[in-house]
Amino acid sequence: MNFESLLIHGGIDGDERTGAVNVPIFQTSTYKQTGFGVNKGYEYSRTGNPTREAVEKLISELERGYAGYAFASGMAAITAVVSLFKSGDKLLISNNLYGGTFRVLDKVFKNFDISYGIVNTTDLEEIRANIDDKVKAIFIETPTNPLMDITDIEAVSKIAKENSILTVVDNTFMTPYLQRPIELGADIVVHSATKYLGGHSDLVAGLVVVNNEELSERLHFIQNSTGGVLAPFDSFLLIRGIKTLAVRMDRHNKNADVIAKYLSNREEIDKVFYPGLEGHIGHDTHKKQASGFGGVISFVLKEGYDYKKFVESLDIITFGESLGGVESLVCHPASMTHGSIPYEIRQKVGIVDNLIRLSIGIESEDDLIKDIQSALNKSKI
Ligand SMILES: *Cc1c(COP(=O)(O)O)cnc(C)c1O
Fold first, then answer.
1. 47-74: pLDDT as tens digits
2. 274 Cβ neighbours under 8 A, 6+ residues apart
3. How far is 381 from 227, CA to CA, in rounded Å?
4. 114-140: per-residue pLDDT in tens?
5. 132 is known as an active-site residue
6. Rounded distance, CA 377 to CA 319, Å?
7. CA gyration radius, the chain
8. 116 CA → ligand 1 middle, Å
9. Which SUPFAM superfamilies does its entry note (predicted)?
10. What does pTM read for this prediction?
11. Nearest to 206 by CA among 43, 5, 59
12. Which numbered atom of ligand 1 lies nearest the CA of 75?
């Protein structure tokens, strides 16, 4: 089946008992056992629930993995993945990983003696130089948020394999429609399904896909032991969202391409970060490993323009956290997603105060450009 059809008919397609075309919401905690040790494959919904299983099977097929697991949030999914490691282990992480992933490593797992080393994963030599006996995995995001750094997934996976360590890819920004890390050699893919997979800003969810039976057994054990599972209703919503992923991503790509080019030509703007722009560092690597550029664009306003006025003057584009929904959103990384990082470090890594991030939705591109144009006009100090 082609990918577009798999989005709609993959995993568990409909309901066998009734013929319903959608997987029912099995809103149940427990299941009748017909005798000691005799059941229909389900005992308790933390361990297994048919609606959750449908989305788990679906994401596993979409990412071309061995098995998938659904969690109550992207962070619960990432926490489960980090729980595969033990005291004394170390992870190498990209230098501008999602803030929440950095926080859970720095403030939670560090207390359990699972450490991390920050590397520029766009530089393969730097990765190699930082691998020692303690390092058990490389955790990457590509493109990164908000500066859209591109890491070569295939090359990193190769280095990891040579050193018998795991490659974990947070594929939230691309989704399996545009980029499939397991096909490029990664072992584990994680998602904040809150973003593009859900697609409608109406649920919080996380997914993990692993590439082999051993990891699958260990991850299911962790999921059942720690219990951060996705509820049946949210599993249903996520399946519903995934059905339209291809058409939504095509539109996100198209709108973002037009807007990135528009922003690049505006005199109020200093720099635009979008992997689809030919001048973007990593553009060629991204093109090699993904079939589109996604809907997230960041840009820096020139001096003399007020980022607060810009953001507050937008009308259609909503000021808020998150990304990946059908509606366009704007956020201010320095005070929002990266607010916990000290000012000097933010300057050093490029999260300057005049940096703005857009998650381009699927509205009319004309309306979005008009909105941006009007806000730029009002942003002059
Ligand atoms: C949002 C996000 C997360 C965290 O997911 P939640 O669903 O908010 O818990 C992790 N990684 C990336 C890249 C994200 O954008």
1. 999 999 999 999 999 999 999 999 999 9
2. 148, 256, 260, 280, 293, 296, 297, 298
3. 51
4. 999 999 999 999 999 999 999 999 999
5. no
6. 18
7. 21
8. 19
9. PLP-dependent transferases (SSF53383)
10. 0.96
11. 59
12. 9
